[in-house]
Amino acid sequence: MSEREVLAALRENARYSTADVARMTGLSESEVEAAIEDLEAEGVIRGYRPVVDWDRLADERVRAEVELNVVLDRETGYADIAERLASFPQVTALRLVSGDYDFDMEVEGDSLGEVSRFISEKVAPVPEITQTVTHYVMTSYKEHGLELGDGDDDDRLSYSP
Amino acid sequence: MSFEPAGRVREVPPSGIRRFFEIAEERDDVISLGVGEPDFATPWAAREAAIDSLERGRTSYTANRGMADLRAAISGYVADRFDLSYDASEEILVTAGASEAVDLAFRAFVDPGDRVAVAQPSYISYEPGITFAGGDVLPVATREADEFRLTREALAEAGAEEAEALVYCYPNNPTGAVMSREQLEPIADFAREHDLLVFADEIYAELTYDGEHASIATLPGMRERTVVFNGFSKAHAMTGLRLGYALAPAEAIGTMNRIHQYTMLSAPTTAQYAAIEAIESCAGDVREMVEQYDRRRRFVLARFEEIGMPCFEARGAFYVFPQVPEGWDADTFAEELLTEHGVAVVPGSVFGSGGDGHLRVSYATGMEELREALARIERFVDGR
């Protein structure tokens, strides 16, 4: 139960201090630490990364969504193909999905050339992959549940009954 | 010939918050914990339903009592959430905010000279509403020792057996107090014994932490003497859409509707469409908001304890009600906190008897602002 509450607070903001999470959940700081350690040990929490709005940074960042179709045989299953693809650092997310294609893969690189080369030289030649469709990201509006607009000003009156 | 205010208007003083509001408006660094409304926007699905209704040109009046679909949705919702059983066609009146419903009840059932007991500290509109209706306010002070719950003793001490009606709000604005079914039972006994109507403002019902909201209308013999007020402002973050409702036996709703049909005609149509959607598809949004409020509530309570300002454990609405430190009066504390540190809170005295020496602190504000505001309060207290 306490793990759930700690997780809910961290999902709101993973940078809340242990002391603040303790205040929010009514647990002691050591209980919060223990809950986080358990969540990490169980593999529920896999890491902590900032949600970046790349458009606000000067450096170019090229991202693409890639649809992959694969064929399976007796020796090769989805997990085998996934493991192979996931090992590439350029791949930032990889999911088996229902629908018209098999894998939904997110790829990141420093330039259009780098991402294109990666897909044509590393992904397409994989024997089980029969088709790739690459969609370059043009603008991102929401990432990890956070809208990337300018935000809404609080236009409430400073006092109300 | 002059615009001399009528006597019953003269009787009502201007709001005590006004002075603070003017100071706050002059600064641009104010963090406000003085707000009585959610910091969330209305769930998008409900806003979209409102937009859709506008696009389809649904901009005419509705039935006086509100759209039949909305009343049916409300009937199902209050049965499901609060165990309240009200017939959609005869026992529900949709109003322009719960405030209108409260006003209608006073005007419908309070005769000049009738006494109405008001559990205090309380929302600031009850006293003026009773006065406008020609009634006499009988303040019933609740005590911090009782965690600001209304008790039979407090009613007896105030002489409430002579009153015609009792009005209260639980979960409470401004204290954050809640009342359980067991704690409501003696109040129900008192109302039955002394034949009081009960006006139960349950606008914060969904914002009940550590337990379930209990409505006095579910207690034996109480449905027939109770008007329940609720609405979409707080739980569904719809304050500006102005939509509330009253639940009461058919005869009472009929009487209230007699005023409503002449003065309001019908509640805002766009808001009614939003409300149907809010009930049908926004329970998840409400749950998410309630979870966030609860984290903030515990955070704020913990910080006041660390700062050394005693604060009973508020379990409802989105307010805590700490005491000001020894040697302060709440008005001065609130004013200096605002002018020196840019934090807006409301002194408890604004909310009637029993509120002196306290502050209403709203946590309907983002965690970052809360953290900063409490750090400022800590500096202010430590610097004295």
Written description of the protein model:
Chain B: Its cofactor is pyridoxal 5'-phosphate. Chain B: Residues 29-377 form the Aminotransferase class I/classII large domain. Chain B: One of its GO terms (molecular function) is transaminase activity. Chain B: Its EC number is 2.6.1.-. The complex is a heterodimer of chains A (161) and B (384). Chain A is an alpha+beta fold and 161 residues long. Chain A has two domains: 2-41, Arc Repressor Mutant, subunit A, CATH 1.10.10; 61-142, Alpha-Beta Plaits (2-Layer Sandwich), CATH 3.30.70. Chain A has helices spanning 2-12, 18-25, 29-41, 78-86, 112-123; strands spanning 62-70, 91-96, 103-109, 129-136, 142-143, 146-147. In chain A, helix 1 (2-12) packs across helix 2, helix 1 (2-12) packs across helix 3 (29-41) and helix 2 packs across helix 3. The radius of gyration of chain A is 21 Å and the shape is extended. With 384 residues, chain B is an alpha/beta fold. Chain B has two domains: 7-42 and 284-382, Aspartate Aminotransferase, domain 1; 44-281, Type I PLP-dependent aspartate aminotransferase-like (Major domain) (Aspartate Aminotransferase, domain 2, 3-Layer(aba) Sandwich), CATH 3.40.640. Chain B is 41% helix and 12% strand. Chain B has helices at 7-10, 18-25, 44-55, 68-82, 97-109, 126-132, 152-158, 181-193, 250-263, 269-281, 283-307, 330-341, 367-382, and strands spanning 31-32, 92-95, 115-120, 136-141, 165-169, 197-201, 226-231, 244-247, 319-320, 343-344, 346-347, 359-362. In chain B, the strands form three sheets. Chain B has a seven-stranded mixed sheet with strand order 2-8-7-6-5-3-4, with helices on both faces. In chain B, strands 9-12-11 form a three-stranded antiparallel sheet, with helices on one face. A two-stranded parallel ribbon of chain B has the order 1-10. The radius of gyration of chain B is 21 Å and the shape is globular. Chains A and B meet through helix 1 and helix 2 of A and helix 2 and helix 11 of B.
